[in-house]
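Cast an eye over this sequence plus tokens and walk me through the fold:

***
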Amino acid sequence: MKFILILVFLVVFFEAGLISSYTIVTSQAPDVGKLIGMQIEEITSLISFGSGSNILNTQQTKVITNPDEVAAALQNKTGLSGINVPSLTAQTIASSKQKIIPVNITVMGYQDSISGGNSTQIIISANQTYSITATANGTLSNGKIDIDVNTIQITSSRKLYGNTNGT
């Protein structure tokens, strides 16, 4: 019983302090209903934090109907030697009711490096690996997506591995 009484006293004391500080800061009479509503919203958002984000839960991986064309366009835009087509994935969060939907594309690529100590020996090795992220628009049909290669925009290119020993 004492615990509940102390808890009620603390809540009333906190609310009185909030209302008086609001009056001092804004020089206006506080709207008590809005202040309490705001506090309830903040507390419920903290309680439900991590229970699931709409963006993360609704993101779907789609099969690309034109992977070779997408890989060629990505290779041209990045300047890499090649794109690993099996690593090509497309994710979307848009509704399937839309005609044209935005797509996030991720793929692995590589850059060939030519090195050699003399003119008789040239060594070519795929020694630099990149992770590429891009965005584009696509058309959804039968659960698969056809990506418009003219709308591809590179958002990031990260070097994952690079052989720096020169051989």
